[in-house]
């Protein structure tokens, strides 16, 4: 039987090779470091490569199912982890570019591709022969001699089947397949609608509209208008480097309100309306969860997390709300007194920025000259060198998907190769908003012991350089860089045996620890002194500016926390429903009313553009940012105790967190690094909610209690 399958696979390869011999995906990439040959890939290559990849993956599965030998960990679980790598090679490129460098043809193809991949995935999960082999290995797990990593892979594999309908029979199986296919289509359509509508939102200005805007920002929006063929005008968009500084600095309340409404009404009406789509997505997720025996989608989703239950998530959200709400109310009273008026949502950034300047003589925009992108790159990369001995060497012999992209070879302290890092910093119409880390290839260990290293990418939307000035980053943008770089280190330093649990393949409420941990360095003088120098004079950032940055870092912490909690409450509301939502606007309002910071503005809504939960991977998981923030504050507290570049502390963090991927329960990995369970008090101290030297009554982050 196995020979027959291999023969069929060979015939398939022969046929497809004859049909499209020039398709780069039809063979291993013969390139430096196994990098992606982007310059050779055309749109017409994707669908044939996906079709071929699915067929080859099915052949891999058939070989497992029809293996005459009794099921073992190696011939079933490990074989399944290695199955479908030809398919992964193409989808890792296609879907990453769908966010970073998309065109209309790819958007159209993505709907067909998502449907095919959903059907394939569902067929694998509902393959009775495969499930029985996985179950047979799992049922004998206590008699097997497995490492902790192997036990974790076995449990993850078993859970992925059990929680995805493997036990369903008859009509329930068919219903599961139909619901899953519908859900895949709708989540893809949601994301496309957000990108398309945001690209249509433009605020055009004249010279009379520029009051309060910094000179370098004006230059940038003039360049943006010029690119659109409207020289002499100024263009503001919803991309953060355009939107954020305008809301902070424009003296024109009417224009701030106009831009705010452009943003907050996205996808609530018209051609790209997502109102019905979010209702359907939420309903489909609940129906699937019910089929699998769960009360809600959140119950299903949270099984393999540190939180484990919706109750634990709500307990954390409520605890943080109660701790931060009084401080937020005090912040708002102070701000309204300063402004001499009621604060509308489009006023907050403007007046809080001015109050911050008055209290701390701090202006984010004034710090941009000290953060030219090339120096920030050196500083951020240098952080990894100081902590872990890792260095970054720019390479020119590796293909890129856009001229903005730069590639670095990542080298460990012993000279060994760790992987490639692709950096993509600037906004463009073909890229979605925001910032993210992803991989074109994960890490794993081959059967012969070869360590197959990853291809990692970090994508952002920073302020672009102009004809006269380099790209100058705000502290917020430097923080974003540190965040995504933390994710990339998690992906690059990983040392695992199995692809399915390497790198960032960890519990969702643990995955943000490495990224948010890095953010702590933004306010550390020792770190900033190494690279924050004025791009014209070369003068280091003045000590008083660092002091103001540190002092102002806490400013608005309560507001920022409640804003994150708002997103968390909205997410949990949509995914703990037990019946369909009739009025999504009112439903959302009720979900976050306990942390609402402003009266409702008619026509505005968050859910219709909330890509994290409706087209990303954070459904019933947005709380994880705050959960991980508790972890990162507690982790950095250990560095503060021992020295922020302490080699032994960094070595422990690397070995127990960054290298281990999802090989063990993250609670155990964290305890191994920290020597104790995390406490929420470190976060409260960092944000000024508790006195900085408070040591008593630390509250453990126990899922059952919080």
Tell me about this structure.
The protein is 54% helix and 6% strand. With 706 residues, the protein is mostly helical. A hairpin with a 5-residue loop joins β4 (406-411) and β5 (417-424). The strands form 3 sheets. The protein has a 5-stranded mixed beta sheet. The radius of gyration is 26 Å and the shape is globular. The chain contains 27 helices and 9 strands. The chain has helices at 2-19, 43-65, 73-82, 85-100, 104-125, 128-139, 148-162, 170-200, 215-227, 240-249, 253-264, 275-291, 297-301, 310-339, 348-360, 373-388, 475-492, 513-519, 525-528, 543-553, 557-575, 584-592, 611-614, 624-642, 647-658, 666-674, 681-686; strands spanning 202-205, 234-237, 391-395, 406-411, 417-424, 436-441, 444-445, 451-452, 455-459. The protein starts with a helix and ends in a 20-residue tail after the last helix.
Largest beta sheet, briefly?
5 strands, mixed
Mean pLDDT score, rounded? 92
N-to-C terminal Cα separation, in Å? 53 Å
Question: How many beta strands in the DSSP annotation?
Answer: 9
Rg over CA atoms: 26 Å
For the largest sheet, list the strands in their spatial order. 3-4-5-9-6
**Percent of sequence in beta strands:** 5-15%
Helix coverage percent: 40-55%
Name the structural class. Answer: mainly alpha
Q: How large is the count of helical segments?
A: 27
């Amino acid at each position: 039987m196995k020979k027959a399958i291999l023969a069929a696979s060979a015939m398939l390869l022969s046929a497809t090779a004859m049909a499209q011999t020039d398709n780069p995906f039809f063979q291993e990439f013969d390139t430096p470091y196994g990098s992606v040959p982007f310059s050779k890939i055309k749109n017409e290559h994707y669908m044939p490569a996906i079709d071929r990849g699915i067929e080859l993956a099915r052949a891999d599965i058939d070989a497992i199912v029809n293996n005459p030998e009794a099921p073992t960990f190696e011939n079933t679980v490990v074989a399944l982890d290695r199955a479908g790598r030809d398919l992964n090679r193409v989808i890792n490129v296609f879907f990453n570019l769908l966010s970073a460098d998309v065109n209309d043809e790819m958007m159209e193809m993505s709907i067909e591709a998502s449907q095919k991949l959903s059907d394939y995935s569902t067929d694998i999960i509902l393959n009775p022969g495969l499930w029985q082999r996985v179950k047979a290995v799992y049922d004998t797990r206590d008699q097997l001699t497995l490492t902790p990593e192997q036990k974790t892979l076995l449990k993850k594999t078993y859970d992925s089947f059990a929680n995805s309908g493997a036990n369903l029979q008859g009509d329930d199986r068919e219903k599961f397949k139909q619901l899953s296919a519908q859900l895949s289509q709708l989540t893809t359509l949601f994301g496309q609608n957000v990108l398309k509508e945001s690209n249509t939102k433009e605020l055009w200005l004249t010279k009379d509209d520029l009051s309060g805007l910094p000179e370098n920002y004006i230059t940038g929006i003039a360049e943006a208008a010029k690119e659109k063929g409207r020289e002499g005008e100024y263009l503001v968009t919803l991309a953060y480097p355009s939107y954020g500084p305008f809301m902070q600095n424009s003296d024109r309340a009417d224009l701030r309100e106009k831009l705010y409404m452009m943003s907050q009404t996205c996808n609530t009406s018209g051609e790209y309306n997502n109102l019905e789509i979010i209702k359907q997505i939420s309903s489909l997720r609940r129906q699937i969860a019910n089929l699998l025996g769960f009360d809600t989608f959140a119950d299903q989703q949270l099984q393999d997390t540190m939180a484990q239950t919706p109750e634990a998530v709500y307990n954390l959200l409520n605890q943080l709300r109660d701790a931060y709400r009084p401080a937020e109310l005090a912040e708002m009273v102070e701000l309204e007194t300063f402004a001499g008026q009621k604060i509308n949502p489009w006023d907050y950034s403007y007046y809080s920025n001015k109050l911050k300047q008055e209290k701390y003589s701090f202006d984010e925009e004034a710090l941009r000259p000290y953060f030219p992108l090339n120096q920030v790159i050196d500083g951020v990369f240098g952080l990894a060198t100081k902590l872990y001995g890792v260095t970054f060497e720019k390479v020119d012999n590796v293909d890129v998907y856009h001229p903005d992209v730069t590639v670095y070879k990542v080298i460990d302290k012993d000279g060994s190769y760790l992987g490639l890092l692709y950096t993509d910093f600037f906004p463009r119409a073909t890229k979605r908003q925001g910032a993210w880390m992803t991989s074109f290839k994960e890490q794993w260990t081959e059967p012969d012991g070869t360590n197959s290293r990853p291809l990692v990418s970090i994508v952002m939307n920073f302020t672009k350089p102009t004809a006269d000035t380099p790209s100058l980053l705000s502290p917020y943008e430097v923080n974003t860089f540190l965040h995504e770089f933390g994710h990339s280190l998690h992906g690059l330093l990983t040392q695992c045996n199995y692809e399915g649990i390497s790198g960032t393949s960890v519990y969702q409420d643990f995955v943000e620890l490495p990224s948010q941990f890095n953010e702590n360095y933004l306010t550390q003088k020792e770190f900033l002194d190494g690279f924050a120098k004025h791009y014209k004079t070369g003068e280091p950032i003045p000590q008083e500016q660092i002091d103001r940055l540190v002092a102002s870092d806490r400013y608005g912490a309560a507001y920022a926390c409640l804003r994150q909690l708002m997103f968390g409450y909205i997410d949990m509301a949509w995914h703990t429903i037990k019946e369909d939502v009739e009025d999504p606007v009112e439903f959302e309002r009720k979900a976050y009313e306990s942390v609402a910071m402003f009266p409702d503005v008619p026509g505005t809504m968050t859910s219709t553009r909330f890509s994290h939960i409706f087209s990303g991977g954070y459904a019933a998981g947005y709380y994880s940012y705050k959960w991980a923030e508790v972890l990162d504050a507690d982790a950095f507290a250990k560095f503060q105790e021992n020295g922020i570049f302490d080699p032994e502390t960094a070595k422990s963090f690397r070995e127990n967190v960054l290298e281990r991927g999802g090989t063990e329960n993250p609670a155990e990995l964290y305890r191994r690094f920290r020597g104790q369970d995390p406490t929420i008090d470190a976060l409260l101290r960092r944000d000024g909610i508790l006195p900085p030297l408070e040591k008593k009554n630390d509250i453990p982050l126990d899922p059952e209690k919080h």
